[in-house]
Structure formats: C-alpha cells, structure tokens
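Reply to dn_fold:

You asked what the input looked like. This is it:
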Amino acid sequence: MKQKVLIVGAGIGGLATALRLAKAGYEVEIVEKNAQAGGRLNQIKKDGFTFDTGPSFFSMSYEFAEFVHDCGIEMPFEFVELDPLYSVNFSDNPQKNYHLYKDIDRLAEQFKDLEPEFKAKMEKYLDKSGQIFNDTVDIVIKNNFDSIFDYMSSLMQVNPVHLPVLTRNFWNQVSRNFSSKEVREILSLVAFFLGRTPFDTMAIYTLLSYTEFKHDGYYNVKGGMYQIVVGLVRELEKAGVKITYNTEIVDYETKSNDKEISHLIDSTNHVWRADTYVINADAAVWRHRIFKRKAFSTARMNRMQWTMGYLTFYIGIKGKLPHVNHHNYYLGSNYKEYANKVLSEPGTLEKPYYYVNVVSKHNPDCAPEGCESLFFVCPVPNLLHKTDWSDKDDVVNSIIDNFSQRIGQDIRPNIVSRTVYTPEDWQNQFGLYKGSGLGLAHTMMQIGAFRPKNHDERYKNVFYVGASTIPGAGLPMAIISSKLVTERVLKQLKK
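and this is what came back:
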C-alpha cells in the first residue's frame, strides 16, 4: 500500500511538491482553502476581462526546466522572454520613459546624458552582482540546513571577498557604482520585489540585477501567468492527485507518542489523514494559528520584520493604450522619503508610487476586442500600521488620475470593470500575516536557517513549503523550495 502525503495549500510550492512526490510513487492529495488553485498566483475573470492577481512575470526559467525534467514531463505552459524588461517613468519628466533593455549598448544610449560612462559602470556592477550570485546560489539558496551551525558552516564556504557587502544596503551598493539619481532609483527598484525598500534590503540582493539583465531575464506566460497553475493542475490530474477546494484546515490531533500528527481537521469537522503532511500555508502563520507555538505567539509575531502591504486593483477599460508597455513603474520625485515611510506611514499614500501591468498587451485574449486589462500594484503599509482601508477608493482614484496624467490619456470614462484588493483582502484570502504581501522580510536574521524551517520542530511527519520558508519569496524560489522539502519528505518516508 502506498504511503500517503497530504498537502495543505495549492500554491505553486504545494502544486510542485505534489507533482514531485506523485512522480516518486506516493499517494498525494491536496486540500485548498479557496475555490481555485494558485495561492497568490491567481486569476480574476470578470466582465469579459482576465487579470493575473499576483506575480506578472518570472525569472530563473531554468528552475522550471529542471523541475519538469525531474518530473519527467513536458513544460506545461508557454513563456516568452521580455525585452524590454520593464519601463520607468518619473513624475518630474512624465514625457520621458526609460526602457530597461538587456542589451547594455541600447540601455546606455538612454542614460548617456545622465550617467557618464554608463556602459562601463553597468558592466562592472553586473560583474560584481554575478559574482555574488554564482558564489552563493548553490551554497545558500539551494540547500537544506539542519541547524544554525550547519547554516553558518555553509556561509563560511562563501568567498570572503563578499563580506563587505553584508554591511551595506541595496541602495548603498548601487550608489557605489552610479552617480545619477535616476539610474540609482531604477536599478534599486528590484528591491521592492522582496517586499521591502532599497534602504532596508541587504546589498547581497543586488544579485537580482544580474538575474535581470545578464543571467536569464524576465518572462511572460502566454495566456497570462495563471497558465502556470492551469498547466500544473493538468499534470497533477494525469498523475492521479486529487485537489479538494473550499476546505480550510483549522485544527489537528497528534498520535499517542505526541511526536507525529495523527490527522488534520477542517472547518466542517471533517478529518484528513495521511502518513505525512506538507504545509503550503505561511510557515510562521501556521505555527502561530494552528500549532499555537510559543515562539510564534502574537507578541513575537508582531516583533518580527514583515514585508509591506500591497494595494492591488484590476481595471478593464474600453480602448487601447498603444504607448504603454507591458510592465511599467511610475515613480515620484521623493524616492528616499517615500521608501522610508511606505512600510509604516499611511500618509505616504498621498504621493503614490505604483506599477502597472497591461496584461492584454501580449495576451489579447485577456480582454474583449478593443479593450485593455490593467493590473495596478501600489506598495502600502501593512495592517500593523494601517488597519482602516475605508479610504481605498480614494487612494485608487488618485492613482488612476495620476496614471491618466502620466500617459496623456484619461482612462476614467472608459473603465468598465474594477476590482480592488487591500492588505486586509490579502490577509483574509491568502493567510498573509497582517496583509504583508510577501510575508516575513528577507533580513539577515530571517533568511537561511533563521527563516521558519521547512521541517517541523516537534512533529517529525510535518513539513513546510513555499515563500514563507527556505529559500524565500518568488516563483523560482517556490520551485526550489519544493525540491528541498521533497528531499526531506522522501528521507522521512524511507526510514
């Protein structure tokens, strides 16, 4: 009789782990709180429009290639490389758009008046970022750690030439290489992908610049990002994995030895049994809400460093936006001031910085003919700092007004579909603590072995996968996380 694994949560980490384990010969079942799979990588279909709710592109495509090879399947979705990676617009010069091409010569041409010798500086910066990436990725990112000592021992294998980087933040590292305000701001934007700001993100994460421009780039998925989920679910069906939706786990029971979970209990009091359990919910939140661990008490959770919240809204408009690219960042004139306030001060919203993804630009099926699907993301304080979102419509309207001014085209009369998610919605729907968009921040004491472990401290048949555990946030990281936790589960099941 096959040993059974129950996976709680159908996010990317949970789906990928389920497929790995099913292909390894185990009986696998998934229970999901929501009505459809994907977690934050989800989809809204409304008024004839289709919107991606979360990630709008991905990097490190080779991690997906390795994953499908491990599982013995064909790539279950199609993707195309983005070039330019994205465009950036500043409020003090709205007529000028900077397009971030991978071609350094093409990139340098745009900055020749702002940054003398841009090409040489950029190549030097990317070389350094590449060294950090190549010297850390296999040692730190793609490894399981059994203890803090194990983790520190691994860190000691990293080339000591990178030690000074540990004392700097992202902004400092970029500023050591470039002098112009515009270049510094554009190149440090990627820090926001980690849910913090360039001023409180470690300089080691400048390796992301290398992954952007030189190593692999960014990719868009044909039909929208949710097709990743659709493809994985299809492969899981082929592998005999059952997914039960609208099922929230709220409690558990242990075996008599108190060292293993006997079963989980959902909100209808139904019992779910398996030999092994993999949790694709937030690893800290699960320990807090379900296991009620002292180390994850409310007081301790509130003292942890969490990422910012996100105000996201999904707009369907009549008419096309020919001059707006697929991925766009709209910046103000007070970058540092804004960044220093965005995590904690609600008044920051008066001068919003935001991102716009024109979903239908490369995926015309995501909007009715002659229309566009727009996905807006605005960094905002999480619920630890702003609990009242009754002003959400005012904030959204101000951003739409600003966007209309920037592009020289008033979209307000043409809006035919509108959906808004506040940090409160992200918390309630996806179990994100206090609406923090990417969960625990990637600070020195919250990465590697200091992050919530992917194996439980008490119950030997409970494991964790996804952005909340190692190696951290991001779609390729979720794929890596699935590999790491699968290694642990297989080791446990074979005992």
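Residues 4-41+60-79+223-304+440-493 form a domain with the FAD/NAD(P)-binding domain fold (CATH 3.50.50.60).
Hope that clears it up.
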